[in-house]
Structure formats: structure tokens, C-alpha cells
């Protein structure tokens, strides 16, 4: 089995309510559990930034489904790597939104507004890894 990590960002196609985000996370967590995919999702300022980790085929198929989802658009892959072991193994799908820690970390990355388009692949991954420790319960 080849283990991969895919990181992408996208823009919400409409404004996202708490219940929209809950729906996405509920589906993600139950589906990812079945296909042994884990990861981390951030949402703020209409941008999604997500890492998906798991078996190569499972991640590829899932990404195609996600990219096709009308709730967001312009999904753009930032990085795609083979990994030895998953970084986000504890979470079927972790989640962080615009908390105080979120903005503190953004400022450390030189941003005042969340805009993953401006992040390098190293910045995007380390942002997701750092935010995994400061998740938002919704
Ligand atoms: P269904 O739920 O029947 O979906 C059928 C179609 O309708 C799909 O194209 C789906 O995208 C779309 N759809 C579903 N709900 C809505 C809605 N409320 N409004 C508009 N269209 C809708 N799924 C995962 O399994 N794992 C993830 O990690 C994951 N991450 C996601 C991250 C983001 C940013 C978004 C927007 C979605 C994510 N999803 C994730 C959901 C994913 O896109 C699919 O909805 C999910 O895989 C189920 O699709 P389905 O075709 O099996 O079934």
C-alpha cells in the first residue's frame, strides 16, 4: 500500500453556515473512517484548506469527489507526497475555524486574512499541522 498526503485549497461557492460545515464534517468523518483516510480541514474567509492522508487510490478517488462538490470551487492542489506514516492519524477529519489561535498562527505566517493561495506548500502543511493542536468544536 502506498500512503500519500494531498493538500489543496478551494473557495466556498456560497456563504457557509455552521450547519453547512457540520454537514461536511459529519460526512467526511463517517466516510473517511470507512476508507481509512484521515486529515485536517480549515475554513475561514471563504477559503477551505484541507489535508487528506491515506491509501493512494482512496485519496485520489476522494479528492475527485470533493473537487466536484458544488459547495466549493476552484479546488487547487498545493502538494501531493508519498509519506512514511500519516501526520493526521488521530483525526478522520480534524477541523479548525477562525479562532484566536488561528489568527495568531496566521500572523506568524505573515497574513492578516486567511488566504491559502498565498501560502507555499511548506507553509500550508505546517499551518494544518499546527492547527491540528488547536481544533474548533462545531
Ligand atoms: P452524496 O452525499 O449523496 O452527494 C452527492 C452529490 O451531492 C456530491 O456531488 C456531493 O458533493 C453533493 N452534495 C452533498 N451534500 C450537498 C449539499 N449540502 N449541498 C450541495 N451539494 C451537496 N467527504 C468525505 O467523504 N471526506 C472528506 O474529507 C470530505 N471533505 C470535504 C471538504 C470540503 C471542503 C467539501 C465541500 C466537501 C467534503 N466532503 C468530504 C464531502 C464530499 O464532497 C461528498 O459530499 C462526499 O464524499 C459524499 O459524496 P457522495 O457522492 O458519496 O454522496
TrEMBL record:
PROSITE patterns: BLUF. InterPro entries: Acylphosphatase-like_dom_sf, BLUF_domain. Residues 3-94 form the BLUF domain. Coiled coil: none annotated. Transmembrane segments: none annotated. SUPFAM superfamilies: Acylphosphatase/BLUF domain-like. This is BLUF domain-containing protein. The lineage of its organism: Bacteria, Pseudomonadati, Pseudomonadota, Gammaproteobacteria, Alteromonadales.
